[in-house]
Amino acid sequence: MAQINGTGVRLRAFRADDAEALAAGFADPVSQRFLPQTPEPFTVAHAERYIAERVVSIFAEGGALYAIADPETDELLGGIGFDKVVPVRRQAEAGYWVGPWARRRGVATAALRALSRHALSHGLERLELLIGWDNPASQRVALAAGYTREGVRRGAQPGRDGAREDMLVYTRLAADTGDPAPRLLPDLPGGELTDGVVRLRPLGPDDTGFLAELLGLPDVVATSVPPVAPTPESIRRRCFWAAAHWLHGNRADLVIEDVATGEPAGDIGLYYDDPGTQQAMIGYSMLPAYRGKGFPTRAAQLLSLWVFAETDVARLIAGAVPSNVGSQRVLEKAGFHKEAYLRARLPGPDGTRHDDVQFVLLAEDLLAEGPRLDG
Prior knowledge:
By secondary structure, the protein is of the alpha+beta class. It has helices spanning 19-27, 29-34, 44-60, 107-119, 136-144, 208-215, 218-222, 232-240, 242-248, 295-310, 325-333, 363-369; strands at residues 4-6, 9-12, 64-69, 76-86, 91-98, 126-132, 148-158, 164-173, 193-194, 198-202, 251-258, 264-274, 279-286, 315-320, 337-347, 353-362. It folds into two domains: 4-173, 3-Layer(aba) Sandwich (Aminopeptidase); 189-369, Aminopeptidase, CATH 3.40.630.30. Helix 1 crosses helix 3. Residues 9-175, 198-364 form the N-acetyltransferase domain.
């Protein structure tokens, strides 16, 4: 088996003396979470069988399994390979893991680039990655290695509890350059936006309690689309899947924090469902204790400035039901202009429909008027 050299990594054959490090890597909680097919706990004995039997069987079936090693010390950093080869389609499914001692060093990205380049120049024409919705670290690796997210495979992953999980499908073709595709929604600079009074940060798994409280408020439910209280599972998915949506470029969910206390005060979201016309929408909600303090105006301005500076969005829209004068005032103070009155646009309870007052903000509006952070 030939070695494959990458930037800062070497892909080589597994050896018997890799067993202890392999066991430590597979026993790590992150590996156990995203590799549910591995035994729990994963012992050195399991690792020895993996090296002696699993690696051999994968090669016998037309696939490959490599150790990811440090090219200077030969230390085991992780593993990578492909299986589920379909010869008639010249495709296979790739996978990788990195031990906790080697993470956040670009190891997985370098290894995936090296393996993909090798495999796609030696007979394969399509490589797939199946990645969990709540595994943004692996999604970033795929994007950096030139893979494209192309869909969702429903119930593709059996979990340890017997339930099946949907998986995101990322692919790379032999004809692809391997260069990372530009992201529609880049990361926030320094991970947040702030004006010294409010802070916007990405929604995450730790926000389920806060979001359940916010989105369960009767007045928030009444202005939601549709006007139905979210289930605990939908709240969990929104928090755990937020990073995946952001990386895909169709949605950015943020928490509005009070800088003085560090407490969450509300949420604001950017919904980029129409990149063809470069139009996106914003929406926001606030906890009662933080209303009347100008927080949503500040949040809308911060988000708008970032959108026009860092993305290709040309039009930002937002809407409010006619009776929601407070929300309309927020948008006007944030620089949005009333543009349309859309009759019966929004679904209401029990089959009713609500009118929608729509506002728009253009980049030139901000340049002409400047930010107005007066609350």
